[in-house]
Amino acid sequence: MRSVSIGSMLLVALTALMAGGLGLIGHRVITRRMAHLIATTNLVAAGKLDTRAALEGGDELSRIGKSIDSMADQLQRSQEVADLSLAHTHRVLETSLDAAIVMDSEGIITLWNAHAENIFGWSAQEAVGKHMSDLIVPVQHRATHIRGLKRFLQTGETRNIGRRIEIEALRRSGETFQVELAISLLPTNTGLCFSAFIRDITQRKTAEAAITAANHRFQAVVENVQEGIMVVQDDVMAYANPAMHVMLGYEGQELIGMKLLQVLVPEEHEAAIARGRRRLAGLEPNALYEAWMLKKDRHTRIRVDRNITVMQVDGRPALLGAITDVTETRRAEQSLKEANEKYRLMVEHPKTGMFISRDLIFLYANPALHEMLGYAPGELIGLDSRKVIVAEDLDAVLAREARRMQGLATPTTEIRLLRKGGEE
To answer: Cα–Cα 20 to 30 A to 346, which of 103, 113, 335, 400?
Structure first.
């Protein structure tokens, strides 16, 4: 409330009287009207804003009375506006989805909404009138809270008013927990107050901690896996793990920031760009495919398997690639293929009969053996080899087979075979 100086009002009145001359008005009338003005002024100054002097006439005292009444009107209108504003502020605080607390300049709680009851465990009836530091400030922080309040009241210096901060708070149970706090100044008709909006962020902090731990685990895996991992966004490598650097002959973080095309062979640039665009647009499913990549020397090529998927990085789509160097594998496969071809040529074409058996059953017999024994191509496969051995030689064959299974030397021996018709 605006204060009214009684001394100032009386000084104005006396000055006006002197200017008008005391001799024109009777002494008693002046004294009575002066007393009425003083009483009116004192009541307005005390907060009785509906009090009016209501002096009639056109003399100086009447004009002073009208001035006092006009000032009271203005003060009353200002107070009504302030009361409406304060009432609106209280309604906002009471219905806030956050815990809302109002504290006066002495640190005493004057408002405690329903969400504050839920978060801290104290009812409004229990909380209002108590020191806020005793209810919700952890013991280890109370001295700091009290010093900060005193510093602000004495110097106006503030560190936390007008901004959001994260601090520890105290529940009725004694549990401390993380909250987000926003403090504002709240002028009232009884002096300066502080309003605080408080949000329990325990679940958010728990989720953030879980995400951080998961990220650390993921990073540990990615950083130590033998497979190359890279993230490409806007055709630039935003990330490449150590294995990717080693695979292409780079050191440290050299790959990060490089254009993807710098590590692809020129003849595959167009296809790689088109495939990436289709993946980002969702027009091509994730699939494993082979490609050539260039090492740092720009000459050495390596064959890789690439599995590309779409992910989000900073809210924008990116390509996550898992890269496996299959150069040696493909070389080994080619060598094996060539060896198999040589073996096939060696086995399929000579006139010497060759076979592979297990437990005396033919698993393979070359064309020469089929022709030698009079069987059609493939007819020997699955046949018991004892059916093509002369009976008198069978014991020698079985003995030789037993020695071979024991790892003993088996000298070359001659045996007689039966043709399909039964002749030797």
So the answer is: 400
Q: Do the beta carbons of residue 211 and residue 114 sit within 8 Å?
A: no
Q: The tokens of 6 are what?
A: 């009684």
Backbone angles phi, psi at 198, to 5 degrees: -125, 130
State which H helix or E strand residue 271 sits in. Answer: helix 269-280
Q: How far apart are CA 88 and CA 70, in angstroms?
A: 27
Beta strand 228-233 with 316-325 is antiparallel
The single residue listed with the structure tokens 């150590």 is: 242
* 16 backbone dihedrals φ, ψ, rounded to 5°: -65, -40
pTM to 2 decimals?
A: 0.46
Residue 268 DSSP label: G
* 27-45 and 6-20 helices, crossing angle to 10°: 160
The set of residues, in sequence order, having a beta carbon less than 8 Å from that of 151 and lying 6+ positions away, is: 157
The H or E element spanning position 385 is none
Q: Tokens for 227, please give them.
A: 């497979």
The helix (H) or strand (E) run that includes residue 338 is helix 327-348
Query: From first to last of its 424 residues, what are the pLDDT tens digits of the chain?
Result: 344 444 444 444 444 444 444 444 455 666 776 777 677 777 767 667 677 767 677 677 677 767 777 776 676 666 655 555 555 556 666 667 789 898 998 999 988 998 999 999 999 999 999 999 999 999 999 999 999 889 888 888 877 888 889 999 999 999 999 999 999 887 666 678 898 899 999 999 999 988 888 888 888 888 888 899 999 999 999 999 999 999 999 998 999 999 999 999 999 999 998 988 888 888 888 778 899 999 999 999 999 999 989 999 888 999 999 999 999 989 888 888 888 887 777 666 667 888 888 888 989 888 888 888 999 999 999 999 889 888 888 888 888 888 877 878 777 778 888 898 777 6
User: Which residue's entry shows tokens 């006439």?
Assistant: 57
Structure tokens at 327: 């150069």
The tokens describing 64, both together, are: 């002073």
| Sequence letter at residue 173 | S
CA angle 43, 47, 51 (to 5 degrees): 50
